[in-house]
Amino acid sequence: MGTGEAWRDAKVAASFAAERAARVPESRTQIELLLRIVRGRLRGTTRIVDLGCGDAVLLTALLDAFPEATGAALDYSPAMLDLARERLSRFGDRARVAAIDLRTPDWRAAAPGPVDVVVSGFAIHHLPDERKRGVYGEIFELLAKGGTFLNLEHVASATPAVEALHDDAIVAHQVAAARAAGNDVDPVAQRKAYDARPDKADNILAPVWTQCDWLRAIGFVDVDVFWKWFELALFGGTKPCS
Questions:
Q1: What is the pLDDT of residues 81-95, one digit of tens each?
Q2: Into how many domains does the chain fold?
Q3: Which residues constitute the domain of residue 122?
Q4: Which of 38, 43, 151, 206 lies at a C-alpha separation of 20 to 30 Å from 239?
Q5: Is 42 within 8 Å of 31 (Cβ atoms)?
């Protein structure tokens, strides 16, 4: 079962962290929009959880934006947790890092609630669909009333033809980013590297619209897809205030 095993490899983790903007289109836009949504909350933001945090880029952005907030960075990969500790070290006691396994509800022990905001970035798609729904329910329980959940995620294309468009667009972005950095990249070689990427087998993708329906069924309100670029999406919702 693919559950993100590739990300436990220190080389894979370090490579992604160092090359995020080159590998993931519109990385800055994703974070700016996430921050805009959190800033628009009707309640304060003082307790944050970054679930499947990777190198904690989302939690870092939130702690910078909300100086009174504290946060927990939780992940399955020891390699990613090392990167998260390094990135978050400047926040001192405002940030803590802990190892979790989203395959069971036991991860909740590392994040005693209630919390104001839960974010996740490219992590939950490693789980089977039934477990994705379970995690969303656990997040709902963790949130305070009026709490916000935002998932920046790799989602399924509607058809194989759209998936092919996504793959072509990703490779074109990677080639353009490499050339902008002064590297001469062969598009054919880049496509072969993309198709052979070590984390590919860990992807268990679900349509974003289906996942939004799951959130509504759990009880989230104001559920929406706030941003989408082919198979990349930012979606989420709010726990009712009453």
A1: 999 999 999 999 999
A2: 1
A3: 5-205+212-238
A4: 206
A5: no
